Amino acid sequence: MVEEDVVEITSRYLRRDPEKIVEIYEALGIETLSDLAAVDPSTISDAFGVKDSTAKKIVADAREEASKGIMEAKTLADLLEEEKKRDVIPTGIQGFDERMGGGLPTGVIVGMYGPPGAGKSQFATQVAAHALKEGESVLYIDTENAFRPQRLLEIGGFKKDELKEVSDRFVLRRVIDAAALRQYFDEKEGEFISEAYELTPKVVVIDSISQPFRPYSARDKLPERSRMIAHILNTLLKYCTAYNSLGMVTTHVQANPDAWGKRWQDVAPTVLKHIATYRFSIDYKGRTERVITLEDAPDKPPFEVEVELTDRGLVG
User: What is the pLDDT of residue 131?
Assistant: First the structure.
């Protein structure tokens, strides 16, 4: 049954009988705001015989209204019901997945930091590979020009006859400039919104969010950096919350001068430390050995898992 909100949004731009609007949407299989938000505007323009610009406004309004749903007041019963619907994305690291209750939870942003070469990108690629193995879609935003498709296929162990089907569910975006990344995540005009609603990825990776903002490290540019990153992460969080998806964000480190502490300090923006529900670090333990540490979580105590970096990814 077509929701009233869908009819109301469409009626803002089209002088059509509501029953006729319902009839057309039923034929298209569009019933909810989320359905309308996910449709290609050309489908609306063709079905109603209107200009593309009008169809784009209808879809844009649907996306804006759909995103507001995450701000509604919810009872404890509502929240418990949402928890039941939350999925997990396995990482393939047995010890890690066991401690995390099956894998990384959806509906949240997860942050990971570590020194160069420790395995941040390997971990993100591994999460993407396992999501694809589960039949899900992935949007991977590479800001360091470091992603290699062969590594994804190697970690996932995909067979030749799987490649065509898998490739249709994986989209890579290379965005190396901070302003371009901010524009990409613009809620009104950014391409993330269109791509996310079309692909509906279960996993969205930003690897890393630190790299594009290196030119903003001067003290006088920190406020601007914080505003831009906050906008990016809030747009990502809205999508993850509304569509029960996982946001995976990696960040860099800097050397820690404190002899009694860790060798590395997380340089993740403060806003990420607040928005990320779970935060992990990965560090060296040997030539191929690594340690993944849960640094912060609302429902689990900190833990460490020793892993090994192999041809098939991180194993432990």
Answer: 95
Cβ proximity of 203 and 89 under 8 Å: yes
Nearest by Cα to 233 from 270, 200, 267, 265: 270
* pLDDT tens digits, one per residue of 264-294: 666 666 778 788 999 999 998 888 999 999 9
Predicted model pTM: 0.77
Contact 307, 292 (CB under 8 A): yes
Report H helices in the chain. Answer: 4-11, 18-28, 33-38, 41-48, 52-68, 76-85, 94-99, 120-133, 149-156, 163-167, 178-184, 191-199, 222-242, 270-275
Under 8 Å between Cβ of 256 and 264: yes
C-alpha dihedral, 149 to 151 to 155 to 158, nearest 10°: 40
Query: Distance between CA 188 and CA 52 in Å, rounded?
Result: 16
Can you read off the two tokens belonging to residue 24?
């057309």
Look at residue 194 and tell me whether its pLDDT is greater than 70. yes
Signed CA dihedral, 226, 228, 229, 232: sign only = positive
